Structure formats: structure tokens, C-alpha cells
Amino acid sequence: MKRETDLLDRIGVQLDPEQRARLGRFGDLLSSRAVDLGALAAGDRDRVMERHVVDSLRAAPLLRPGDRIAYDLGSGAGLPGVPLSIACPWCTFVLVEPRHRRAAFLELVADELGLNVRVERARAEDMAVPGDLVLSRAFVALPRAWALAAPLLHPGGRLVYFAGERLQDPAEAAREAAGGEVRVEVLPSVLERSGPLVIMERP
Questions:
Q1: Which of 32, 34, 156, 167 falls between 20 and 30 A from 41, CA-CA?
Q2: Where are the beta strands (DSSP E) in 80-173?
Q3: How many CB atoms within 10 Å of residue 66?
């Protein structure tokens, strides 16, 4: 618990005891069920909190009080959408996952933890209602993520892309992906084995 507290402090996220308890229950569900679904690597079973849950929460400080709808594209095991919904309960997170068994797992998580989420067993291309935020973690390459996110964002809405450590010059890669004027911000990771967050704001 102290290790997780230190990591949360490092990324600037403050949670109350109930939120911490929900994160812990989610971590247990990831370890006991998500690995068997193939949604997480077997080698991550004993380190889901640090490797996946806390890593997902790096995006929490980027949510604004006025954000109401956030899409988690290719949600898989609910990362980053589930941890963020626990940390930012004022925003509805739409967990977009086309695979039936993984979508069923997300519905189980939502019911057990009482989350402000909506599970959509669909492809990202099938979403139509504009939102304030789109999240992409371990889903597709940056150009594809922006192509899917842009139609789903209100003007001023943001894509938060969890980049890999190997992405060269993330800011330039983001501008090339957008093919035009777009506000780009890159936040280096303070966690080990995590790449930067690339934030792209739709004009």
C-alpha cells in the first residue's frame, strides 16, 4: 500500500479511502479474471496495480471539471477508463470494446464497483456522440488514434495518447498525425517503464 501511495503522490493524484478500496478491488479482478481473458499478459498478474492501474491514473490530472463524456477506445481490461472513472466520478467513461468476453468483463467490473461508465460492445468507428476526451492506451499507433478520436471530439476536446517509450519526438509525431494545426502537449512519464502522455486538442 505504501508503494502505491508513493506512486500516486508522484503522479499528483489524491484519492479518498473509498476510491482506494475500489482501485484495490479492480486490481483483484484484473489479476483473477483479466489475465485469463487474454486482456493482460500473464507476467503482469502480480504487478497490475503499478504496471496498469497507477499508470492509467497518470491521465487523471488532465481531466477538467467540465468534462462530461470520455471515450476509452479499445478498452480491453478497462485500462485506463476504469481507474479514471474511480478517480474522476463526475465524468462518464464510455468503455468501447468490440470483443464479447472482454465487454462482459467490463460490465461485471462496472456492476461490482458501481462505476459511472457505459460499456459499448462496438468498434471505435461506430461511436457517434461527441465527447470531451478520448483515451488511447495500448490500442493503436498515434496516427490511427487521432483519426479515430478527431470525429468523436467537441472543438477543444482532447485525445490523451499513452505513448510507448520508443516513440521518437512525440510532439512532431502528433503534428504529423493531425496533418495540420493542432495544439500538442507532451508530458514525460515519472513512472518506470512508461512512455509520455501525448495530448492533442481539436481546434
A1: 167
A2: 92-96, 117-120, 131-137, 153-162
A3: 9
> 96, 74 in Cβ contact below 8 A?
yes
The sheet carrying 131-137 orders its strands as 117-120, 92-96, 69-73, 131-137, 153-162, 197-201, 183-187
Domain extent listing, the chain: 2-201
CB 45 within 8 A of CB 31: yes
Cell digits of residue 161: 495518447
Using alpha carbons, list the distances in angstroms from residue 100 to 96, 114, 155: 11, 21, 32
CA dist 60 and 57 (Å) reads 5
- 107-154, pLDDT tens digit by residue? 999 999 999 999 999 999 999 999 999 999 989 999 999 999 999 999
Q: Is 197 helix (H, G, I), strand (E, B) or coil?
A: strand
Calpha distance 155→122 (Å, rounded): 24
What is the rounded CA–CA span in Å between residue 145 and residue 2? Answer: 35
Class of domain 2-201: alpha beta
Single-letter amino acid code for the residue at 140: V
